[in-house]
Known about the structure:
Elements: E1 13-14, H1 18-36, H2 39-42, H3 47-52, E2 55-56, E3 61-62, E4 66-68, E5 74-76, E6 81-82, E7 86-89, E8 94-96, E9 101-102, E10 107-109, E11 111-113, H4 117-121, E12 124-127, E13 130-132, E14 137-138, E15 143-144, E16 149-150, E17 155-156, E18 161-162, E19 171-173, E20 178-179
Parallel strand pairs: 2-5, 3-6, 4-7, 5-8, 6-9, 7-10, 8-13, 9-14, 10-15, 13-16, 14-17, 15-18, 17-19
Antiparallel strand pairs: 1-12, 11-12, 19-20
Amino acid sequence: xxxxxxxxxxxxxxxxxxxxxxxxxxxxxxxxxxxxxxxxxxxxxxxxxxxxxxxxxxxxxxxxxxxxxxxxxxxxxxxxxxxxxxxxxxxxxxxxxxxxxxxxxxxxxxxxxxxxxxxxxxxxxxxxxxxxxxxxxxxxxxxxxxxxxxxxxxxxxxxxxxxxxxxxxxxxxxxxxxxx
Length: 180
């Protein structure tokens, strides 16, 4: 379920509305505060950023900097770790299961821009949810594309581009990512 106004998961919408623009501005400000706070004062997550999120589980830790599209569609289970320079475009819901670890520079995209040039110029995109199971490990600079589900205990190698679902316990690597 999408927490953003005017967006239904999987349906085309315009990302150029004023309401969505204001929400993106809020997310940028929260991410900026998180990145510029003294680490001792910030703790596991800056207060403005944590308040923005859909769920921030116990024991989670988010390194700075972080980039979110909106924040309200991000749901973290307990004991999730996000290393520095992660980008999470949460136009749809992103669920990250308990104990998951994301390496530096991991990107998760829910936004799928229209493939027709004229419609892309209009700002048309759709939002496809992404789900990472419990105890998933995503290596540095891996990219998870819209609509992907990664099963419990799976490992995604550094630099992989994940276009399709990953079964529980599987290890994937490469561009595009394949089971190894």
